[in-house]
Amino acid sequence: MRTSAVIVAAGSGSRLGAGQPKAFVSLGGRTLLARSLATVAALRELFEVVITVPPGMETEARAEARRAGMTIPVKITAGGIERQDSVRIALSLTSAESDLVVIHDAARPFASPALFERCIEAAARCGGAIAAIPVADTLKRVEKNMIEATLPRAGLYQAQTPQAFRRRLLIDAHERARAAGITATDDADLVERLGQRVEIVEAAALNLKITTRSDLQIAEAIAATLEKQETP
C-alpha cells in the first residue's frame, strides 16, 4: 500500500532551551530532523514525505532533506500553533494516491525503520496502529500534591510515534475534531473518538522523546553508544 510520511518538526523547543527549534538541534553531529529523514528514507513503498517546521525554517528543512538524499517527493510547510494543527496542515498536503499515512515526531530520533514498518503493516490490517511501551513505573493520581489513588498499571501503555493510519480515516478524524473543538495530544486519540480500534506495536524504551535538556543529554549518550556499535 502506498504510504505518505509526516514528520512533525514544528515545535519551538522552549523547554529544551537550545535557542533554536528543537528539530534543528544537533545530536551526535546530525539534527533531530536529519535522523528522522534518514529513517523514513529507508522505508519500503514510501510515496512522499511532508515535513512541518516553524515558520521561517522552510529553507533549512529543505537543505536537510537534500543532505538526507531523499529520492521521493518532499513537501515542506509551516506548522500550526499546536501539534494537532501541524498534523492537520500536513495531511492536507498528502497525495490522494496514498492509502496510509505514518506520523512521526522529529523529537524521537531513535525510532527504527523496522518499527515504522511494523506500524504501517498493522495499520494496513486494522486501520490504525501506534508505537507504545508498557508503563513500568507505579502511577499515582494526585490532587493538591496529595496522593488520591494508586492506579493499576496492568494494560497501560505510553503512546509514542510513529503512528500509522488509513489516510482517509485520519483526515476524517482531524476534520471532525476541529469542527467539535476537540484537542488531543496524539493522533490515535482522535481516531479512537470515531470508534476505530487502534493496535499497539510494542516499541523499545530507546524510542525516547527529547523535551528537556536532560533528555538531550541522555540521547547524546545513546547516540555515542550506537555510533560505537556501528563502527567496524
Portion in beta strands: 25-35%
Q: Care to count the β-strands? A: 11
Strand order, sheet with most strands: 5-4-1-6-10-7-11
Radius of gyration: 18 Å
Average pLDDT: 94
Tell me the CATH superfamily: Spore Coat Polysaccharide Biosynthesis Protein SpsA, Chain A
How many structural domains are formed by the residues?
Answer: 1
CATH architecture: Alpha-Beta Complex
What is the percent of helical residues? Answer: 25-40%
The fold-level CATH name is Spore Coat Polysaccharide Biosynthesis Protein SpsA, Chain A
Helical element count? 7
- For the terminal residues, how far apart are their CA atoms? 36 Å
Low-confidence stretches: none
Largest sheet: 7 strands, mixed
Reading the helices and strands in chain order gives EEEHEHEHEHEEEEHHEH
Class, according to the CATH hierarchy?
Alpha Beta
Structure description:
This protein is of the alpha/beta class and 232 residues long. The protein has one domain: Alpha-Beta Complex (Spore Coat Polysaccharide Biosynthesis Protein SpsA, Chain A), CATH 3.90.550. The protein has 7 helices and 11 strands. The longest helix is centred in the C-terminal third of the chain and has 18 residues. The protein is globular.
Summarize the structure.
By secondary structure, this protein is an alpha/beta fold. The chain is built from seven helices and eleven strands. Helix content is 36%, strand content 26%.
Labels describing this entry:
globular; 36% helix; 232 residues; Spore Coat Polysaccharide Biosynthesis Protein SpsA, Chain A; alpha/beta; two-stranded antiparallel ribbon
